[in-house]
Amino acid sequence: MIKLEKPDIDMESVIKDCISNITVQPTLAHINASKTTIISKSVEYDELAEQGQLRTLETHTKVYGGATKDDMVWLYDNKFVADGGRKYYEKIKSIPKYNKCPFCGVGRVSTLDHYLPKTKYPTYAVTPVNLVACCAECNKKKKSEIGETRENEFIHPYYDDFDDAVWLKVKIIFDEEIIFSFYVEKPDTWKQEKYERAQNHLKKLQLNKLYVAHCGEEFSEYGYTAKELYERGGEELVKEDLLGRIEERRRVTKNNWRA
Q1: Can you give the pTM of this predicted structure?
Q2: Of 161, 207, 166, residue with least CA distance to 186
Q3: I want to staple 233 with a disulfide (CB 3.0 to 4.6 A). Which of 20, 99, 208, 237 is the partner?
Q4: 3-state secondary structure 79-131
């Protein structure tokens, strides 16, 4: 939901630093044999992602040259996260402004997500543009799911711009208690495919539930302010204040749940 700048990290340097002190055999031999493939495939990943064609990549368990899925998962877990590649891990983790998760816009960044899961696409286990800083909840909900169609693909923070229009809306029902329900409203400028992707993203990451959980407190706190404003200047003063707050919330991202 929040567009991010792609990490400016050289793939060849990542591989070099990650394998610099590997003593485990045959893992080192396997990765060395696949190094050229991993680098070239990372370039291909970037090109396909720019075209919205990542779904054309096939799942696999081996990298051309010799590296296996286990080799690449081990490389990420033991070298990219915890050893020679840690500086790259931290650099990617620091990309989102204000430490906000780009998938939900609420949670605090605490980990990296493999946009294409490393167990199904081990070639891209340490590819920087396949690694997205996010919160633990979104990482958990996203799991190892991949979109079989463009409409079912999660929003990719490096390549997709979903902040070109306001589409996140909320219904507020005043009954015995106040009920909130967030939904996607299709902007006139959007194609059906983009609209369905936004719906899918909201549903699979359970963002309605997340935003609603914050609504009660937000609404209750503003209630006191609204009453004071109403007593001072009536309905128009309350409207003016609300419109100002909406504009303020949307300065960073148009689809801020608080707006």
Answers
A1: 0.93
A2: 166
A3: 237
A4: HHCCCCCHHHHHHHHCCCHHHECCCCCCCECCEEEECCCCCCCHHHCCCHHHE
